[in-house]
Inverse folding.
């Protein structure tokens, strides 16, 4: 993990983009350097005020990721961000008029309230700061009509109400799709138990509308699992319900009479009716047990998918760090090789002292001090 400096942080914030990987990578770096939380939050606020409107939302997604993911490490970021968020929401409310941006911020506030990131009063204060302009305009209109307080309260809830309406419409769409999927699945189950069981395994939730390249609002990653924990989870999936060939074969071999109501009218005596009832009860027990195992497997696979996502994000971060260190050491190696060549060239240009003539063998020794005085006298 690279060392923290304010200039490095400013550079990383300038390079931040709307991709999930970019937000996750910078968030991990900030959480790693959480001891500098004061400088980080102050720099984040200053840079947010200077970026274009679309990137302000990306800065808020980054803050959302850092606040939620740093809770396990300590409360530093949550407290520090709470000191500047009122000013940040007020700034965005005054400078940005995009319904899309305001709606996305409303969803972030909803998630913070649902997950208890901040208390309800704090969230209400943030909403008030975000929609301050509309509240002020409503108050001015209300004062002219003698209904200032009512208009002010109504105006302060406009942004929140529109965001909730958008969320409600999306939720209703997801519910309708889910109902259609369940209806289709039950229809196939009525005619073929194996198809119904397979539908439980293969059914996937409908895709959510994407915004700026990732699902809004961006949900942060959890703690990356240890490799041993991940291997254990992968091994447990090998013995899952969907891979139980014996049970699937038993379901496939169930007689069609147990799922066809019309077969009841063809029963001729009480013994056959009892036999059919026993077969139906056994089939119900078998299917209930298998469906419960499939439901448990789906839950395990969901957890495994989250573990793989977190593990992959951590490995990408480690890979990026390793590549950065490799580039740094390649540059150092290139400098050393260049220095080595310069030294070699310099040595090759120096005279070879062994090739010089011997000037000491045939010369008389230098006179001593006494010899010099005797010569003078």
């Amino acid at each position: 993990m690279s060392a923290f400096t304010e200039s490095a942080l400013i550079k990383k914030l300038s390079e931040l983009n709307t991709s999930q990987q970019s937000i996750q990578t910078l968030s991990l770096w900030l959480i790693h350097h959480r001891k500098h939380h004061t400088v980080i939050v102050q720099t984040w606020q200053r840079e947010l005020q200077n970026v274009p409107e679309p990137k302000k939302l990306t800065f808020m997604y980054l803050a959302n990721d850092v606040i939620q993911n740093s809770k396990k490490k300590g409360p530093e970021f949550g407290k520090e961000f709470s000191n500047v968020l009122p000013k940040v929401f007020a700034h965005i409310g005054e400078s940005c008029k995009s319904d899309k941006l305001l709606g996305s911020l409303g969803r972030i506030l909803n998630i913070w309230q649902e997950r208890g990131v901040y208390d309800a009063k704090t969230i209400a204060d943030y909403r008030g700061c975000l929609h301050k302009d509309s509240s002020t305009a409503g108050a001015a209109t209300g004062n002219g009509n003698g209904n200032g307080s009512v208009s002010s309260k109504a105006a302060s809830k406009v942004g929140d109400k529109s965001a909730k309406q958008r969320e409600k419409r999306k939720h209703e769409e997801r519910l309708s799709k889910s109902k259609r999927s369940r209806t289709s699945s039950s229809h196939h189950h009525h005619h073929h138990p194996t198809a119904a069981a397979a539908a439980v395994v293969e059914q996937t939730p409908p895709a959510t509308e994407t915004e700026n390249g990732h699902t809004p609002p961006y949900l942060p990653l959890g703690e990356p699992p240890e490799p041993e924990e991940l291997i254990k989870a992968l091994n447990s999936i090998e013995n899952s319900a969907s891979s139980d060939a014996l049970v699937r074969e038993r379901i496939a071999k169930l007689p069609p009479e147990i799922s066809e109501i019309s077969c009841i009218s063809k029963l001729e005596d009480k013994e056959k009716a009892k036999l059919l009832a026993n077969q139906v009860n056994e089939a119900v027990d078998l299917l209930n047990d298998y469906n419960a195992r499939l439901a448990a497997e789906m839950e395990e696979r969901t957890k495994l998918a989250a573990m793989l996502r977190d593990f992959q994000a951590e490995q990408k971060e480690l890979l990026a760090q390793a590549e950065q260190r490799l580039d740094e050491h390649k540059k150092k190696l290139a400098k050393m090789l260049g220095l080595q060549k310069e030294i070699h060239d310099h040595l090759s240009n120096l005279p070879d002292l062994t090739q010089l003539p011997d000037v000491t063998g045939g010369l008389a020794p230098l006179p001593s001090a006494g010899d010099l005085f005797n010569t003078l006298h």
Notes: Residues 270-349 form the longest helix (80 residues). The radius of gyration is 37 Å. The mean pLDDT is 75.
